Automatic annotation (TrEMBL):
Protein origin, superkingdom: Bacteria
Gene3D superfamilies per record: Rhodanese-like domain
Natural source organism: Deinococcus roseus
Organismal lineage: Bacteria, Thermotogati, Deinococcota, Deinococci, Deinococcales
UniProt protein name: Rhodanese domain-containing protein
Annotated Rhodanese domain residues: 3-91
Length: 132
């Protein structure tokens, strides 16, 4: 199984955890500068999928890792393309309980009130939304 290396900053990681897209994978936050300078501790027994927001930093990071003898590849298009491919938007009737519940759901990236409706974006399936 590949291990995920997350090049995004802390705020991006908190706002959109990799668990939204990669269920059951382990991930490690790492800075591109650390990879460039060789200041990291990774196992050569693992293969790595390097992730960033749009795919450019991860492509560069893979070059550094491969030059050091690591098995690594990057997520083409980054989280942005992955989000476009997997995310759906739902409009639901507003309730405080639903807002609270969806705000804490691990597959929900965005939820906001719009009048008497909730706008929900995330990697939820129709079946999961209907369960609410």
């Amino acid at each position: 199984m590949k291990h995920l290396l997350d090049l995004r900053d802390e705020l991006e990681q908190e706002a959109e955890p990799l668990a939204l897209y990669f269920d059951g994978f382990e991930s490690t936050a790492v800075q591109l500068q650390a990879l460039e300078k060789g200041h990291y501790s990774l196992s050569k027994d693992r293969s790595y999928l390097v992730v960033c927001e749009v795919g450019q930093k991860s492509k560069l990071a893979v070059m550094y890792l491969q030059a050091d003898g690591f098995a690594a590849e990057h997520l083409e298009g980054g989280i942005l393309d992955l989000r476009k491919a997997t995310e759906q938007e739902f409009i639901l009737p507003y309730s405080d309980a639903l807002l609270d519940s969806l705000s804490r759901h691990p597959k929900v990236r965005f939820v906001a009130r719009d009048g008497e409706q909730l706008v929900v974006r995330g990697s939820l399936s129709v079946e999961e939304v209907e369960a609410f």
